[in-house]
Design a protein that fits this description.
The complex is a heterodimer of chains A (329) and B (273).
Chain A lengths: L17 E12 L2 E12 L2 E5 L6 H9 L6 E6 L8 H5 L2 E4 L11 H11 L4 H15 L14 H13 L5 E5 L7 H15 L4 E6 L2 H7 L2 E6 L2 E7 H5 L5 E7 L2 H14 L1 E7 L4 E7 L5 H10 L2 E7 L4 H12 L5
Chain B lengths: L20 H13 L3 H24 L7 H8 L4 H23 L2 H6 L5 H20 L1 H12 L6 H21 L1 H10 L3 H23 L10 H12 L10 H27 L2
Helix pairs in contact in B: 1-6, 2-4, 2-7, 4-6, 4-9, 4-10, 6-8, 7-8, 8-11, 9-10, 9-12, 11-12
The chains are: A alpha/beta (329), B mainly alpha (273).
The complex binds adenosine-5'-triphosphate and magnesium ion (MG).
Magnesium ion binds next to helix 1 of chain A.
């Protein structure tokens, strides 16, 4: 027994915080520049790779797997170069391509177990594991049918099953929800969440912001082959520092008095009437809010919400593309 | 998924089959091929038209020993043997790479830690195994049947011919596979690959015929003829005077090695890493 090595197939170290780094990566297809000096540090966790069509998401994933050559720059996956050390890292990586890629005239169990064996698992292990991951993704008795008879949603599930059959530490899922109906998307996102919960790093590409917002801990926004913004979800979506959203309730007269008084102590950016008895405010410079609460008592109104400003990923996205990206793109 | 979602479970096993990826591919291709209609039909027809008569003949016709000339006549002259080998070669190899590229399962193989070499070796060893069912095993069976029924007692001479038969069978098994694989790697359509393989042999045969009008030495560029010449050499018989042994060896080596190199480079290029 080797004591120190928990699992000899695990090449990607478990401890580093940063799992994947890309520096100035450039990938060209003829005259098209798919990645243009792309630089990013990707931590562990469930990571969203966001960008419009043609941004270079799939290209980045393929370059990280060593499936396409780089024209410049470096990529390191767990300290290894995917181009020169591809065989070592690929046993510890799972990849779900964006397009149809399944062998049509075999059944799902056979297909997944076959690919498990190609990943180096023994035939029995692979078969057993194939059933296990098909259970996990929710393919039932249909697993004995030929893959070509499957619906798009089922094919997506088989694609994810083949990516996890060998239990890799790092997963690349390229648009896992594409072509699925709302229920299917929900199931797929749930699978991503549950895989992520086991401590694997899952890099999910998507152009649907709400999806990423829901499952990812960290997001990378890419456009035209460049990094636009990246960061922890909370940080990315945090609004402007010191800006608070305040909701108050009370009789109209009291509300009016309160707003006037508040305007004297802090800077009201925006005011929206929400019916006759409620007002929503965006205010800056109200400090820790003690004065807001004191004023509300004074004027006999009720503070129903006092929260730091928060953006949706969509706002972040829009802001980034209007030239407001934190890195000055 | 239902009411009770199943949690993701890590796999605690050990990858015990790291070294046998090649064998996994070979086994899967072989199992698939041996059930396919085209392969079964060609094997059955080939067996009937090329081998069955010879087996019966070699048993019932009185013979003193296993005779090199008889084996050569059966395998080398006439061309049916070569035609079936060409047909089966085209059918067996046509989809091996083209299908993987067409349905993109190619990427599922190569996102895994498999070497291009192992992928190709896996695919081609399955093809070779199928080819041997037509090209190597039946001739060896014929030779054994003939030896078993020989009237004389020169068993060592017969054993020598048996060995030569096995070598000739092996060459016939290998000869057309790299070319077919090359065609399969050049297109996404298996039908194009199969027809392309068959047609290019056909063209080589025609070209050889045409040039042979001027100089019969050109006959070696017909794959069917060069195979036959190599058989006469293997069986220790006289080669036609116009055949230059070195040119023949050169052509046959090129016919195997160049396509093999093309396939390797083609696949390597598509896979990169
Ligand atoms: N094999 C290729 N040959 C030529 N151009 C390519 C190739 N692959 C990608 N491109 C180009 O590179 C750019 C980036 O493509 P990529 O597939 O990485 O985008 P993406 O972000 O994944 O988009 P999508 O959301 O549509 O999947 C695009 O302009 C695309 O046309
Ligand atoms: Mg893409």
């Amino acid at each position: 027994m080797q004591g120190a090595v928990e699992n000899p197939d695990q090449v990607i170290p478990k401890d580093d915080h940063i799992l994947l780094t890309a520096r100035d990566v450039t990938v060209r297809f003829g005259s098209v520049i798919a990645l243009n000096g792309f630089t990013v540090d990707i931590p562990r966790g469930v990571i969203g790779l966001l960008g419009p069509n043609g941004a270079g998401k799939s290209t980045f994933i393929k370059a990280s797997l060593g499936l396409i050559p780089r024209n410049g720059g470096t990529i390191s996956v767990g300290g290894l170069d995917p181009q020169t050390q591809s065989l070592r890292i690929r046993d510890d990586i799972g990849y779900m391509p964006e397009h149809d890629c399944l062998i049509p005239n075999v059944s799902a169990v056979e297909l997944v177990s076959y690919l498990g064996q190609i990943s180096g698992m023994g035939p029995r292990d692979a078969m057993q594991r194939s059933h296990e991951v098909l259970d996990f993704v929710g393919i039932g008795e249909e697993r004995y049918r030929l893959v070509k008879s499957y619906s798009t949603g089922m094919k997506q599930k088989v694609k994810i099953a083949q990516a996890i059959v060998h239990d890799p530490s790092l997963l690349f899922l390229d648009e896992p929800t594409s072509g699925m109906d709302p229920n299917g998307r929900e199931e797929m996102l749930d699978l991503v969440r549950r895989i992520g919960a086991t401590g694997k790093t899952v890099i999910v590409s998507s152009h649907i912001l709400q999806e990423v917002e829901r499952v990812c801990e960290h997001a990378i926004i890419i456009s035209d082959g460049r990094l636009v913004r990246d960061g922890k979800m909370g940080v990315l979506m945090a609004g402007e520092e010191g800006l608070f959203n305040i909701t108050i309730r009370g009789v109209p007269k009291a509300l009016e008095g309160f707003v006037r008084a508040l305007g004297g102590v802090c800077d009201i950016v925006e005011k929206t009437d929400e019916g006759t008895n409620q007002v929503a405010l965006s205010a800056r410079g109200c400090g820790d809010g003690r004065r807001v609460f004191a004023l509300s008592k004074e004027h006999g109104v009720q503070v129903r919400g006092y929260v730091p400003d928060k953006m949706s990923l969509e706002d972040v996205f829009l802001q980034a593309f209007q030239g407001g990206g934190s890195r000055g793109y | 998924m239902g009411i009770n979602p199943i949690e993701y479970r890590a796999w605690k096993g050990v990858r015990s089959a790291q070294k046998s990826r090649l064998y996994v591919i070979a086994k899967s291709v072989f199992r698939h091929k041996i059930r396919s209609f085209g392969v079964i039909a060609l094997l059955a027809l080939g067996f009937l038209l090329v081998h069955a008569f010879q087996i019966i003949f070699s048993v019932i016709a009185p013979h003193e020993s296993l005779d090199a000339q008889t084996m050569y006549d059966y395998m080398g002259s006439g061309g049916t043997f070569a035609i079936f080998a060409i047909l089966l070669g085209a059918v067996v190899t046509s989809d091996l790479i083209s299908d993987d590229v067409a349905n993109r399962s190619f990427v599922l193989y190569f996102s895994r830690a498999i070497k291009v070499r192992d992928y190709l070796a896996g695919k081609s060893s399955a093809a070779l195994l199928i080819m041997s069912l037509l090209c190597a095993i039946p001739p060896v069976m014929v030779a054994i049947a003939s030896m078993a029924t020989q009237t004389g007692d020169d068993y060592s001479g017969s054993a020598g011919v048996l060995g030569r038969t096995a070598v000739a069978g092996a060459i016939a098994t290998i000869f057309f596979v790299p070319y077919g694989l090359m065609m399969s790697s050049l297109t996404k359509r298996k039908s194009y690959a199969a027809v392309g393989t068959f047609m290019s042999f056909f063209v080589m045969i025609i070209v050889a015929e045409l040039f042979a009008e001027f100089d019969p030495a050109w006959r070696i560029i017909s794959p069917a003829d060069s195979l036959a010449y190599s058989f006469s050499w293997i069986f220790g018989l006289e080669m036609p005077s116009y055949v230059d042994g070195w040119a023949l060896a050169g052509f046959m080596t090129a016919f195997i090695a160049i396509p093999a190199a093309v396939v390797y480079l083609r696949v390597k290029r598509q896979v990169v890493g």
